[in-house]
Design a protein that fits this description.
elongated, 34% helix, Rossmann fold, seven-stranded mixed beta sheet, six-stranded mixed beta sheet, Metallo-beta-lactamase, Chain A, 383 residues, alpha/beta, 2 domains
Length: 383
């Protein structure tokens, strides 16, 4: 597939995968992207997942048109992008392998060879001329592994962005970009907002007309939209106004409180998203928690702790650097309510969290007083 006159797409689609990285549901498959620049010298950007090695090599051979590649640029060493380095190196023994020092250390660990006799170690600001195309390498450590480099083609103003600006789904799916890119970002990159901000500041020096990520579609139009979302996500800003309510309920009483709160919020004109953690994809719940500025957690006391799905949810929020939110807690307990205290303790690791003054404590089942508390909480969240 031609991206520009000289840049070709040689990636593959995986329609068989069910869980990406062993945990993220990908009902629309996954794309493993690879690119070629045809110039006086030929450069290949990254390989693909090991299951698609033969298909990828056939695409390369067709793209080369009888010529021989000069460089394999390894931007990221995760196996879904690096698994075919050895196959490429064997088939094209004169090609140099280009990557960061950390990438070559990982290469040795993963595949038993760091290609000492044919490697080109690159670092921040290094350049590589292919002829007409002039490449600049920009370090992107912890976006989202420490060895990552992204590459800027000064000629066509193309950013080869490694895992940045990627998304779940095969490249030919017709789904909304932001939905699956957001879930991808917060699940995989979200902990490293500071590092993403650093990269965005570096990239501001380069005029970008096109973004070529390692997952998802090539981005060619309205790039300010994508950069803007990445700036919001990585600075832990509020993307969408509204209230996100995540809950668990054993016998339906906590659910009644949540449904009443949602009804009151909506009556006050507040967008409200409700998630039953026991029946929802956890990565989608995490995505929404980061998306909205106001979050309500409602759960029951369970074995002196909190219900397992809520515990897992909060653990994931903490792991991914959850911060900068207004939160409210609703607890339920029959003889020794502990849920609010446990949730608050778990969230102490999160920065810039403010809590609603209104408290809702249910003792087994909703009462008229609880209904008043829920109404007061809705009013407070709408201020």
């Amino acid at each position: 597939m031609e991206i520009t006159k000289d840049v070709l797409y040689v990636g593959v689609n995986d329609y068989e995968i069910d869980l990406f990285e062993g945990q993220y549901a990908v009902p629309n498959g996954m794309a493993y992207n690879s690119y070629v620049i045809l110039d006086n010298k030929i450069a290949v950007f990254d390989t693909v997942d090991g299951a698609f090695g033969e298909e990828w090599l056939e695409k390369l051979e067709k793209a080369f048109g009888g010529k021989t590649p000069d460089y394999l640029i390894v931007q990221h060493m995760e196996p879904d992008h690096s698994a075919n380095i050895a196959a490429f190196a064997e088939k094209y023994p004169t090609a140099q392998i280009v990557g960061s020092a950390k990438a070559f250390a990982m290469m040795k660990n993963f595949y038993g060879d760091d290609y000492e006799s044919r490697r080109m170690v690159i670092a921040e600001g290094d350049t590589l001329s292919l002829g007409k195309h002039q490449l600049v390498f920009v370090a992107a450590p912890m976006v989202h592994w420490p060895e990552v480099m992204v590459t800027y083609d000064k000629t066509d103003k193309v950013l080869f962005s490694a895992d940045g600006f990627g998304k779940f789904g095969a490249i030919d799916t017709d789904e909304d970009w932001a939905c699956e890119a957001r879930r991808y970002y917060f699940g995989i990159v979200g902990k490293y907002g500071v590092q993403v901000q650093t990269l965005l500041k570096k990239l501001a020096a380069y005029p970008v007309d096109m973004i070529c990520p390692l997952h998802g579609p090539v981005l060619k139009e309205n790039l300010a939209y994508y950069f803007g979302l990445y700036d919001t996500w990585s600075s832990y800003g509020v993307e969408s106004e509204g209230v996100f309510i995540a809950y668990t309920s054993v016998y339906g009483n906590t659910k009644k409180a949540v449904e009443l709160l949602a009804k009151n919020l909506q009556a006050l004109g507040q967008k409200t998203v409700v998630c039953d953690l026991a029946r929802s994809d956890m990565s989608e719940a995490v995505e929404d928690a980061f998306r909205y500025g106001k979050i309500v957690l409602a759960t029951t006391t369970y074995n002196g702790e909190i219900f397992p799905f809520m515990r897992e949810f909060i653990s994931q929020l903490v792991e991914h650097n959850f911060r900068n939110k207004k939160m409210a807690l609703i607890e339920n307990g029959s003889w020794a309510p502990m849920a609010a205290r446990v949730m608050h303790t778990m969230l102490e690791k999160c920065k810039d969290i403010t809590y609603a003054e209104t408290q809702v404590k249910i003792l087994s089942a909703m009462t008229k007083e609880n209904e008043k508390e829920v109404a007061a909480l809705a009013e407070e969240l709408c201020k």
